Structure formats: C-alpha cells, structure tokens
Amino acid sequence: MPAEAVQREARKVWIARVLVTIVIFINLQAALQYLLNPNAYSGAFELEGIPGMAAVMGVGILYVMWQVPYVFAAINPAAHRLSMTEAVLMQAIGLLGETWLRTRIPVEHTVLRNSILRYIVFDAGGLVLLAVAWALVNKMVIAKKKAED
Predict the structure, then answer these.
(1) Of residues 115, 89, 84, the one with CA closest to residue 101
(2) What pLDDT is attached to residue 100?
(3) What would the mean pLDDT of 6-10 be, rounded to a whole number?
(4) Could you say which of 45, 62, 71, 85 has the lowest number of CB atoms within 10 Å?
(5) Please, is 136 exposed, middle or buried when counting C-beta atoms within 10 Å of its C-beta (0-12, 13-18, 19+)?
C-alpha cells in the first residue's frame, strides 16, 4: 500500500478515535457530576431526598458502565469495529428511548420534560459523532478489503 494511503488510513482512525473520545468525555463528565453531586440534579427529575439521590447516582453508575464499548472503540476503532457498532446502536437506542419517554410525560411536568430534552440533544449530538466515526472506519476497512482482493 502506498505511503499516502497508509497516512490516510491512519488519519481516519485518529479522527474516529477523537470523535468517540469526545462522546466518552461528555458521558463520563455527566456520570461524575451525578455521582459526586446527585442532589443538584434530582430536582430536574422531580425527585428529592434519599430516593432522588440514589436514583441520580444510579444513572451515574449506568453511564460509567455503558462506556465500556466506547472505550474499546476509542482505543482502536478499526480493530474493535464491533465495539464501534455497539456504541452507535447504544447511542441510537438511547436517543429513541428518550424521545419516546418524553412523549409519555404530561406537558405539565415542564422541568422533567426539559431534562429529558437535554438528554435527547446530547445523545443526538453523540450519535452524529459516533456515526461519522463508524462510517470512517467502515469505509476504510471496505476499501482495504477491496484492495486485497
């Protein structure tokens, strides 16, 4: 493979890595905020006291847990294409689920609906970044397979 092609592939991998890392950073930032200061966020979910604290901290724990495939995808998006695909699917499920959830919350619950809207916006942005990363890696792998044939 010519040196230019190798450089292009390396650049695509690094772009994908950076995009995935941005999503990880945003998700882990939210997780840490939920874990370290849950009472600051419980009101946005119309929760209070110990139950509110526990619910918000639980979401923070889930955020950390959900980052596992994202981390593998960021380490080496080409080698861990399955993790890239899982990350894209997880992000899409989150976006669809949150959008559906918001439609189930009565309009009188403005604070709660706005909280869910923030999730929708962040997950939509994350989905765009992950989809671009996924497309870059898959395009590169397909081109590489064609060249080998």
Answers:
(1) 115
(2) 98
(3) 84
(4) 62
(5) buried
The mean predicted confidence, pLDDT, of the chain is: 93
Map 59-91 to HEC letters.
Answer: HHHHHHHHCHHHHHHHHCCCCCHHHHHHHHHHH
Residues contacting 24, CB < 8 A, separation 6+: 67, 70, 71, 74
Per-residue DSSP letter, 44: G
Query: Mean pLDDT, to the nearest integer, of 14-25?
Result: 96
Give the Å distances, CA to CA, from 55 to 25, 35, 48, 62, 139: 22, 10, 10, 11, 41
1, containing H or E segment: none
Rounded CA separation 129/136 (Å): 11
